[in-house]
UniProtKB/TrEMBL annotation:
The chain crosses the membrane at residues 41-61, 67-90, 144-162. It comes from Thermosynechococcus vestitus (strain NIES-2133 / IAM M-273 / BP-1). It holds the Pfam family CGLD27-like. InterPro entries: CGLD27-like. Keywords: Membrane, Transmembrane, Transmembrane helix. This is Ycf36 protein.
Amino acid sequence: MSQSLCPVPADQRPINEYRDLKASWFFEWSSWPRPRFQRRLLLLWGMAWFVSGPVAIASFSLKEAPFHTFLAAALGANVLLLLILLRLVLGWAYVGDRLQRPTVVYEETGWYDGQEWQKPEPELAQDRLIYTYELRPILQRLQVTLLALVIFSLGLALGWALL
């Protein structure tokens, strides 16, 4: 966005919000190539087991109900991973929405003085291209992953109910 014509503070401009999100340590890995992204998900799921596993073992007798213990730990790990994925989806979706909108809502000095700025056509076209070719594939991957994890969690819950 043009520095001289755009009244929106630099940190509230959608293109800069996108760049900041893409460069942040938490959000950047969702834009990595698929195998690396999947390894990160497995690592996070494994780390979540360090929390959910001991809780499941303390909640159920490992000797008397090993399947319940395993399913409880897996569901606990899934919940933690679901929360992480949900945060990623919401963060990317927020910035994606701001990139696609023809106007930018911003605050000049605080929460009480909201303003709205109409993007010029070239800037709107640029923002929408960034959304279409860079951000939307990330968002779609995250949504599919989130859906797969929800289905997996439902399968674990069904397994629990059938035991």
